[in-house]
Design brief:
Number of domains: 2
Radius of gyration: 20 Å
Number of strands: 4
Shape: globular
Strand content: 15-25%
Structural class: alpha+beta
Largest sheet: 4 strands, mixed
Number of helices: 11
Strand order of the largest sheet: 1-2-3-4
């Protein structure tokens, strides 16, 4: 945890923030927002303010790991619930957007760990109902109510796994295992989707499956190498950092050639094109050209942008 603490301290100092020490904190500094503009006016909208508060308390007050965090080590994350439909009384269909970031050593820059929208989120909420999570009873006594906290707990474990993986080789595996346990014991109801392989190709099942699949173990090396050998060195040893990032992306390219179309690759590269370009735009021509070739193959949607910006 010490290297992580140094990274957070440096960010705070650059931003002119106080650096509190000696106080233990939970792992997350999460913000939850609930948008309910599409909910009929017959529904009391105060319910969603209460939901927002209860979920925020769950995320920020619960102890999610066995590690002791300093306040400035807490992972910054945002959860946005955008309710699109009222399925039945107290049951809502929504899209859930999850964002979390990691500080980069020697800079004020925060790199995204996750920036993902889950469109398969249906849950039940009655104002002031208990909002808690028990990993031994994922399904709870009411499947639709349990799906609310199971989904949030799942993404907390994914965030923790990505964060730990970025600081130590395969350091996130215990949390990815917890996420997969939630998948395996997820609530079941005809209105609940996202937990099964047949629910789609980009859902909670496939993300956990890809990350935990022994055949895809190289993904953990990609996470670690990209951050620790790449971004964390960029503001002190830019040539070495580019080499480290390029090595990680080369592994990702080889992975994609052997396993095309995986969710985990799309999950890693999406919304990251500006960061990739920023890493390599001042590189020497050979490195820049190599980066453009690799990025154009693993992130086809932005291939023209890479060719233009890294030529």
């Amino acid at each position: 945890m010490w290297y992580k603490l140094k990274a957070y301290m440096f960010c705070c100092l650059l931003l002119g923030m106080a650096v509190p020490m000696g106080v233990q904190a939970q792992e997350l500094q999460a913000k939850v927002t609930v948008l309910a503009q599409r909910v009929p006016s017959t529904v009391n909208k105060n319910i969603f303010n209460t939901l927002q508060t209860q979920l925020t308390n769950l995320l920020n007050s619960r102890k999610w790991t066995n590690d002791n965090y300093q306040p400035l080590e807490r992972i910054q994350c945002n959860f946005l619930i955008n309710i699109s439909n009222v399925v039945s009384a107290d049951v809502y269909q929504a899209a859930l957007t999850i964002q979390a970031a990691r500080p980069i050593f020697n800079s004020s820059y925060q790199s995204a760990l996750i920036n993902f929208q889950d469109a398969d989120f249906t849950f039940k909420y009655v104002e002031f109902q208990p909002v808690d999570f028990n990993e031994s009873q994922v399904q709870g006594t009411d499947a639709l109510a349990a799906n609310l906290t199971a989904t949030f707990a799942y993404y907390v474990d994914i965030i923790l796994g990505l964060d730990y993986d970025s600081y130590s080789p395969k350091g996130g595996v215990p949390y990815f295992t917890k996420a997969q346990n939630i998948v395996n014991n997820a609530p079941e109801d005809r209105n609940i989707t996202g937990w099964k392989s047949f629910d789609g190709v980009r859902n909670r099942f496939w993300l956990a499956d890809n990350i935990m699949n022994p055949k895809y173990n190289i993904i953990h090396d990609v996470f670690y190498g990209y951050y620790r050998s790449g971004l964390d060195s960029l503001y002190g040893n830019d040539a070495g950092a580019r080499s480290g990032a390029l090595d990680a992306l080369s592994k990702l390219q080889a992975f994609n050639q052997e396993n095309p179309g995986t969710m985990v690759l799309q999950f890693f590269v999406q919304n990251r094109s500006s960061e990739f370009i920023g890493i390599f735009k001042n590189a020497d021509p050979l490195v820049k050209s190599r980066a453009a070739d690799i990025l154009s193959q693993i992130d086809v949607t932005n291939s023209a942008n890479y060719r233009n910006q890294l030529r």
